[in-house]
Amino acid sequence: MSIAANLSELNKELGSYNVKLIAVSKTKSNEEIMEAYNAGQKVFGENQVQELVDKYEKLPKDIEWHLIGHLQTNKVKYIAPFISLIHSVDSLKLLIEINKQAAKQNRIIDCLLQIYIADEDTKYGLGYDEAIELLRSEEYAEMKNIRITGVMGIATNTGVEKQLRDEFYELKVLFDGLKQSFFRKDDYFKEISMGMSADYKIAIEQGSTMIRVGSTIFGSRITPHWKNN
Ligand SMILES: *Cc1c(COP(=O)(O)O)cnc(C)c1O
């Protein structure tokens, strides 16, 4: 099926849910992205800074770009002028740098805390305690140019549905806890970014508000990028 047809199917399926679709375009060409764009998709996710910046420069300016992969502090400055949402904040040090670069751009950058939920040691993310520690820190209290709008998680790469369901449930419970403890009055803290091509249905059932879908839209990648990232 074509990219446009894949998108149309997916959007039909998502129709009744309040879930935002992030089209994950890593490794895909500008032509392929334009095919999705012309079919109405305006939100795209990338996991590598250089690739993201190249695409941002060449593609239409009304695209909303999300960074979904691990971000090194020394690269924050390249995306700070335009990034809409960083899904992958996994340390206080990184958040401090995002705040600093956002200030230079006179922007407030929305961020998600990436939480470690998978049963694999290859994935980045904060543990529950680390997330709380970050939110209690004096450094965070003083930040004026970032806004934490929710959490993100990557489930284990497994076909075992019960495990996926448990991991997504865990993230939802954690989100609810953080909301109660730190963001009770903040309407903007509302996002749970969870679910990819293989598991988005389960993620939605467990309360996802944003799914990050690549291969279901664009077809499979030669090497899954996130595996060597
Ligand atoms: C690549 C990637 C996705 C999309 O993966 P698909 O299986 O192609 O849908 C989602 N989230 C992250 C963090 C990724 O790196």
TrEMBL record:
Keywords: Pyridoxal phosphate. InterPro entries: Ala_racemase_N, PLP-binding_barrel, PyrdxlP_homeostasis. Residues 3-220 form the Alanine racemase N-terminal domain. It comes from Paradesertivirga mongoliensis. Pyridoxal 5'-phosphate (PLP)-binding protein, which is involved in PLP homeostasis. This is Pyridoxal phosphate homeostasis protein. The modification N6-(pyridoxal phosphate)lysine is found at K26. It comes from the Bacteria. PANTHER family: PROLINE SYNTHETASE CO-TRANSCRIBED BACTERIAL HOMOLOG PROTEIN, PYRIDOXAL PHOSPHATE HOMEOSTASIS PROTEIN.
